[in-house]
Amino acid sequence: MPSIGEVKTGLELDxxxxxxYHKYIYHACIDCGLERWTTFDGGVIQxxxxxxxENRFKAKHNPALYKLGVGSGLTYEEKxxxxxxxxLEKQRLxxxxxPSGNKGKKHPEMGRHLSETxxxxxxxxxxxxxxxxxxxxxxPMWKGGITxxxxxxxxxxxxxxxxxxxxxxxxxxxxxCGATKSYLHPHHIKEFAIYKxxxxxxxxxxxxxxxxxxxxxxxxxxxxxxx
Length: 227
Hints:
By secondary structure, the chain is of the alpha+beta class. Among the domains are: 7-49, no CATH class; 50-94, no CATH class; 149-216, no CATH class. The chain has helices spanning 51-61, 63-67, 76-80, 85-95, 114-117, 149-154, 157-169, 210-216; strands spanning 7-9, 23-28, 35-39, 184-188, 205-209. The strands form two sheets. A three-stranded antiparallel β-sheet has the order 1-2-3, with no helix packed on it. A hairpin with a 6-residue loop joins strand 2 and strand 3.
C-alpha cells in the first residue's frame, strides 16, 4: 500500500505509452478522502478532488451542469454497467415500438464531402501545391535516379490518363468476355516496351479483365471464372 505523498512515474505504474513519462502522486481527495494516484506534473497536483467530488463541485457552482447529469456522483461504470436491471427493462419497454427521434429528418450537412465545403477557396501561394516542387533531386529521398524507366512510365500521369481514356471508351467492360464486375486491366495491343511512341495512344489500348489479361500473356492456363 503506497503512502500519502509518494511519487512515481507512469512507467512504474504500468500506464499507457503516452503517459509513461508523467509523474503521479498518491493523494487523498480533499472532500471524501478517497486515496488514489493523481498526476503530479510540474510539481503541482493536477486534481485535488476525485472525479465524483469534482462533478459535485462543478454542479454546485453551475446548476446547468447538474441538469446534464454532471455532479451526480456516479462514475462512468456506475452509470452504464451497474444500473438497476429493473430500471433498464422499464426504459426498454418505454421505447419499444416507438420510432427514432431522427427518423424522417434530413441532415443535408451530414455526409457532405470536404471538397464541397471548401469549394472556391484558394490557399496562399506559400502553402499551395505546385506540380514538380518535389520532383527528382528536389525531393529529400532522391537517390540519383535508380528507379527503372519502365516503372516510371507506368506510374506517370500520362499513363493514368491513357488508362482512363481506354476504360471510358470501352465502357468499363472486358472486350474479351464482357465482364463488368471484375478487376479491369488496360492492355497495350502493341507492346509497351517496344513501341514507345504508342504508349499513351488510346487506339493502342483495350480493356480486359484480370483473368483474360493474364491468359493473354500466358500467365493463367486454367480457365478461372470472373468474380
